[in-house]
Specification:
By secondary structure, the chain is of the alpha/beta class. It has helices spanning about 5-10, 15-25, 55-70, 90-105, 120-135, 160-170, 175-185, 195-210, 225-240, 245-250, 250-265, 270-280, 290-295, 310-320, 320-330, 345-350, 410-415, 450-455, 515-525, 535-545; strands at about 40-45, 70-75, 110-115, 135-140, 150, 155, 375, 385, 395-405, 425-430, 460-465, 475-480, 500-505, 510. The chain contains 20 helices and 14 strands. The protein binds FE2/S2 (inorganic) cluster. FE2/S2 (inorganic) cluster binds near residues 83, 84 and 196.
Length: about 575
């Protein structure tokens, strides 16, 4: 088979000289240019992305595997997205990174690629970019941190921050304890070790068949994480020789498997948007309705924070994702092909479970019905989502008066105001936090409860927004309202005291205001001014799709393959 890289390195002319000569300044010997598979290692390492700060070591292990299998590894950096530091939100840049990945792969003499991802958005961004090139690819996740340990108990990334900050606000925790907890929570390399977005997406990688078995759960600092990276390096060389491209793995069945796995692990709502975007790149027709229909009968088997009690380290010791997928039995397309050349069913058959409190059997699930519910109604004509497993059961059917915040600054300015007209039954509404409005659809949907509500000992209220929510958060929180307020969705015209009805069982979200009044308000509505009118912000503002379509840029859907039209000299 003639490899793609031979169009660079096998040339016996002036261009071939240029392609090889400059590479040799790195001390690369002649035989590496003899036609062997060239493997790109796409690295999101950055000290500004602490979850991925150990990736140079992982890349080295991948290289060992590539060399061992007769390949030629070449590591390259792409923009990295650190969830904790980047403003206004990493989600704004997910699509930009995907473009970086796509064009870096296509423009270079790469036959196959190993994708190194960890922190939330790095996983979808790399899968999206690589899918648009459709070369053989395998993902290696960076792995979760070890369990947080604070004053004799386990604490989870994100999840316990929300608890601690509410405790500080209501006087149950002092500032010294709060600051002590920082180092106790993040005490090793790796990404968030709750079932937040990073862990969810690492499970998605495995469920889609894009990672080796056990990719999701091995802790970042466990030596077996490095062995897995080594094996991925070996395997990608074989995949190139087999011409096993992403489009053979990312089939409709693979996405259906991933949706059911997200339900079974009680995964993050962010997976909805990311999977819709990845499917859009590879050409699989996936919709919000698929999320509701496929997740509906799937029980939550995993007892992990934020919904449960354990953390990713416990999940690994209990058997990891293969044990969950095996337990799902006939809910999974067992014939779906995976990167190791075997089917998903073959990979998980006989996968043991060592702790049935962490990974529950299907007959005694952790929660009976855990799929994400997709809501419809005049407040979200294109859909909205809620995660029932993170919500308060008594609030799943609720009617209350709206208390409206026009944007996140308005929320922060007024939420603790003693004169705020809010009741425990109120429905908190936050506008202008969607893809175009924020911009980038920030994780602010789990609004802090007003202080006067917290002081009554109340821990949850119905909250509605066009924002996303951190996968480590919880509450009766309706997210991803589409169309968003900034494009004139009904959310934009909700006013204080309007009645809102939520009925999760009926999949309904309704603004109880007469249609004529809605139209009257809509006629006077004006779109907010964008934050910047140049650069990537402008491109994003002008081209971003709504949440129900994955919030990709409209011109990025689909794939162009790996062909390049012209020589460069
Ligand atoms: Fe990186 Fe949570 S902050 S995974």
């Amino acid at each position: 088979m003639k490899l793609r890289s031979s169009a660079w390195f096998s040339l016996r002319d002036r261009n071939g000289f240029i392609y090889r000569s400059w590479m040799k300044n790195q001390g690369l010997p002649d035989h590496l240019f003899d036609g062997r598979p060239v493997i790109g290692i796409c690295n999101t390492w950055s000290e500004l992305t602490p979850c991925n700060a150990h990736f140079r070591e992982i890349a080295d292990r991948v290289k060992r595997g590539v060399f061992e299998a007769g390949g030629f590894p070449l590591e390259f950096p792409v923009m990295s997205l650190g969830e904790t530091l980047m403003r206004p939100t990493t989600m704004l840049f997910r699509n930009l990174v995907s473009m970086d990945v796509e064009e870096s792969i296509r423009a270079n003499p790469i036959d196959g690629v190993v994708l190194l991802a960890g922190c939330d958005k790095t996983t979808p961004a790399l899968l999206m970019g690589a899918a648009s090139c459709d070369l053989p690819a395998i993902m290696v996740s960076g792995g979760p941190m070890l369990n947080g340990k604070f004053r004799g108990r386990d604490i989870g990334s994100g999840t316990d921050i929300w608890k601690f900050s509410e405790d500080v606000r209501c006087g149950a925790m002092d500032m010294c304890e709060f600051m002590e907890a920082e180092a106790c929570m993040s005490r090793s390399a790796g990404h968030c070790m709750t079932m937040g977005t990073a862990s969810t997406m690492a499970c998605v990688v495995e469920a889609l068949g894009m990672g080796l078995p056990m990719n999701a759960a091995i802790p970042a600092v466990d030596s077996r994480r490095y062995a897995l990276a080594h094996m991925a390096g070996r395997r990608i060389v074989e995949m190139v020789n087999e011409d096993l491209r992403m489009s053979r793995i990312l089939t409709r069945e693979a996405f259906e498997n991933a949706i059911r796995v997200v339900a079974a692990i009680g995964g993050s709502t962010n997976a909805v948007i990311h999977l819709l975007a990845i499917a859009g790149r590879i050409g699989v027709n996936l919709t919000l309705n698929d999320w509701d229909a496929l997740g509906r009968e799937v029980p939550c088997l995993l007892n992990l924070m934020p919904a449960g009690k354990y953390l990713m380290e416990d999940f690994y010791y209990a058997g990891g994702l293969p044990a969950v997928i095996r337990e799902l039995g006939d809910l999974i397309h067992r014939d779906a092909l995976t990167v190791n050349g075997k089917t998903l069913g073959e990979n998980v058959s006989g996968a043991p479970c060592f702790n049935h409190d962490v990974i529950r059997p299907r007959k005694q699930p952790f929660k009976a019905d855990s799929g994400l519910a997709v809501l419809r109604g005049n407040l979200c004509s294109n859909g909205a989502v809620i995660k029932p497993s993170a919500a308060t059961p008594e609030l799943m059917k609720h009617r209350g008066r709206a208390i409206v915040f026009e944007d996140v600054e308005d929320l922060r300015a007024r939420v603790d105001d003693p004169d705020l007209k809010v009741e425990p039954t109120s429905v908190m509404v936050l506008k202008n936090c969607g893809p175009r409005g924020y911009p980038g659809m920030a994780e602010v949907g789990n609004m802090p409860l007003p202080r006067k509500i917290l002081e009554k000992g109340i821990k949850d209220m119905v909250r509605i927004s066009d924002a996303r929510m951190s996968g480590t958060a919880y509450g009766t929180v309706v997210l991803h309202v589409s169309p968003e307020a900034a494009v004139g969705g009904t959310l934009a015209i909700v006013q204080n005291e309007d009645m809102i009805e939520l009925d999760v069982a009926a999949r309904r979200l309704h603004l109880d205001v007469a249609e004529s009044e809605i139209e009257r308000r809509r006629a006077t509505w004006k779109p907010p001014q964008p934050a910047f009118d140049r650069g990537y912000y402008k491109l994003y503002h002008d081209c971003v799709l709504q949440a129900d379509l994955g919030a990709d840029l409209d011109f990025l859907r689909g794939r162009s393959g790996a062909g390049v039209p012209r020589e460069n000299h």
